[in-house]
Amino acid sequence: MPTALLVLALSAFAIGTTEFVIMGLLPEVATDLGVSIPGAGWLVTGYALGVAIGAPFMAMLTSKLPRKHALLALMGVFIIGNLLCAIAANYGLLMLARVVTALCHGAFFGIGSVVAASLVPANRKASAVALMFTGLTLANVLGVPLGTALGQVAGWRSTFWAVTLIGIAALIGLWRVLPRQDDEEATDIRAEFAALRGAGLWLALSTTVLFSAAVFCIFTYVAPLLGEVTGVSPRGVTWSLLLIGLGLTLGNVIGGRLADWKLAQTLMGVFVALAVASSVLTWTSANLIPTEITLFLWATAAFAAVPALQVNVVNFGSDAPNLVSTLNIGAFNVGNALGAWVGGLVISHGFGLTSVPLAAAVLAILALLATLFTFSNRNPELQAALD
Length: 387
Prior knowledge:
0% strand, membrane, 387 residues, MFS_trans_sf, transmembrane helix, single chain, 17 helices, mainly alpha, globular
């Protein structure tokens, strides 16, 4: 794999860390800024909305730039956003800084995945995208726990200073090793929007939303599930999250290779595995060892779908690769919010934490149905993509 893919992975690591580490620092942020924990929690929501809403606008703003220059500009926005987080004097400024940081997220992953796929032969595109997204999974394995520990010891602002430095390193790496592809076609933004009309593309994006909702329905509430149902200590929860992160990393690598082999079959198989693992978690969650095994398998199945989903939308929107890849990242974040809402709805209606995995299984089945419909033999356009 080209060195440029490793730099893209480093960039993904920085972006993933800044997105998720805030969840581990909520108590410190709330205390320092004088807001409640739920109020601080809106910093997570603000970031997700910034990704979902800002992604297409940033794609349009960078549409006239060569992809290398677009990635450099987006990483510059990321660095500025994290710097603003580190020096934010109050809650309002921190929220604004989080939204600024989020603006680069969707467009960077969207354009970056197109660049990653262009660096390798056609039969290794999904593996290349998977390598880039490995940075995102490593953010969960290493970036979030280490960033949380640093923030707890040296203050939450120190974490954002550290991520700013990683962003600068990624910017230098992108500038030095990312090749400028002089043969790439100039982006016609009107033509890209015209390419969004196909039903297959919107089905693919809907599949991404349902997949992400199935994952985050559990992921959002995994800590209280482990603590209140399984009886895991707070320190044990940290180790469980590390185990989940390892599963996510393994799944990302496996999924990239499987998607290079058979894209549609990979998606269908992953969604079946995700539905089964989620359902099993309902019954294993009362016992430690079965719970840990189930969560590891669940995490592996979950991220095995990520590279396939990204390649899937580009296949259907090949005339607008930058825009559709960016929209797919927005779809992931819409699914994140949907999954958290569904899980919260289940709990608020008195069904309990053990019913959350069942709700996630239903969402995974809906993703499977969307995939089956997308690749139906009755639609020549979609069947051509399957072949």
